[in-house]
Amino acid sequence: MMALKALVRTVVFKRDVELFNDLALTVYRADELSWREIVIRSKESNLINRLIEEASIAAYNSRIADGYSMGVAEAPGLTAWEVEGEGGGIVINPGLVKLRKLTLFKAHGERLTPIKEYEVRGDLYVYDGEIRVEGVEYDAIGIYSENYVRIVLKEELYQTTKPRTWVKVKQVRKRRKR
Predict the structure, then answer these.
(1) How far is Cα 51 from Cα 78, in angstroms, rounded to an integer?
(2) How far is 170 from 34, CA to CA, in rounded Å?
């Protein structure tokens, strides 16, 4: 059994709407709640499980109504995180990522040509929600984050999903004839 110091921090992402001239986007603003140092006494093979457990507890204890909470547990060479919460709307990006820039594209055949760019100031994160563009004819939006670029087609923004319904079938027993 070994004892290892780890750092557990809690970050809350609060939902907001950011306006860029003719584009409105659902964003999340990060607010760090706490940092604390812990000592983990565990076998080396069980260390990552203990980090996941600490991150999960931190995320669960700091849940908010309209946004997400994230617990991050870090030890030398290892990082575990857990996110709790629920949003709404379409998934704009597969995970909570820091937004750098937005670009509107127009399709010309099979090529996308940039027609308008929006610079992002401050620490804004994007995950789910809504994108509204008014007064500009476009075919796709480029979402530039810290790590990569995601192209979202205009049709993807307006797809509706059918609500899931559960159907329970009740079987009727046949009566025997006498």
Answers:
(1) 8
(2) 52
Question: What is the average per-residue pLDDT within 110-129?
Answer: 91
- In the chain, the DSSP E strands lie at 2-20, 23-42, 67-75, 78-86, 90-91, 97-108, 111-119, 124-126, 128-129, 131-133, 140-145, 149-153
pTM for the model: 0.76
Per-residue pLDDT of 87-106, as tens digits, reads 778 888 878 889 999 999 99
CA dihedral angle for residue 51, residue 52, residue 55, residue 61, rounded to 10 degrees: -130
Q: Distance between CA atoms of 176 and 68, rounded to whole angstroms?
A: 58
Listed residue (97, 91, 93, 80) closest to 30, CA to CA: 97
Tell me the CB-side half-sphere exposure of residue 33, using CA atoms within 13 A. 18
Entry field: residues in the chain:
178
- Segment 35-92, tens digit of pLDDT: 899 888 878 778 888 899 999 999 999 999 889 999 999 988 888 989 998 877 888 8
Q: Which CA distances in Å does 6 have to 11, 47, 119? A: 16, 10, 36
Q: What is the spatial distance between Cα 88 and Cα 91, in angstroms, rounded to a whole number?
A: 8
